[in-house]
Design goal:
Shape: globular
Order of helices and strands: EHEHHEHEHHE
Distance between the termini: 35 Å
Largest sheet: 5 strands, parallel
Oligomer: single chain
Helix content: 40-55%
Structural class: alpha/beta
Length: about 150
């Protein structure tokens, strides 16, 4: 039961909470984690397209992603849970597409991911990668939110 758990990490508080939940599950099931960071530079490129060195930004985003998954690996290891790490770049499509692809490539049996729980206009404008994963994923998905009092 859940020998491989995929945990997408973006460096935010909700993904850190999802990681803690995944570590707890992996300890119970003696499973292994697959930590994933998706580099999606599209929003930044649109905002800063006039004055930006695209390659330098991509390299920086990838470096930050590598730091995020390594921090997650160290945290899991401190709890006795092994974790593989990967950073993937997307130039088109959605983050959710990369997560769904990683489910197959890592042979994961569960996805544990954070969500901001946006509603209304923010959800309409920004969409929800978590929602897309829940709707399309072929394995179970656990979605983790911050407690109500910690949300902004």
């Amino acid at each position: 039961m859940y020998s491989k758990i995929l945990v997408p990490l973006d460096g935010g508080t909700t993904s850190e909470r999802a990681l803690r939940e995944a570590v707890s599950l992996a300890k119970l099931t003696r499973g292994r984690l697959a930590l994933l960071h998706v580099v999606d530079d599209y929003p930044m490129m649109v905002e800063m397209s006039a004055a930006i060195d695209f390659d330098a930004v991509r390299r920086q985003l990838r470096t930050q992603g590598e730091e995020i998954v390594e921090k997650g690996r160290v945290m899991a290891a401190a709890e006795g849970v092994e974790a593989d790490t990967s950073v993937t770049d997307i130039t088109q499509g959605r983050v959710s597409d990369a997560i769904l692809k990683a489910v197959d490539s890592t042979h994961s049996e569960l996805v544990v991911m954070g969500t901001h729980g946006r509603r209304g206009f923010n959800h309409l404008v920004m969409g929800s990668d978590a929602e897309a994963v829940v709707r399309q994923c072929k394995v179970p998905v656990m979605v983790v939110r911050l407690p109500q009092d910690k949300q902004k």
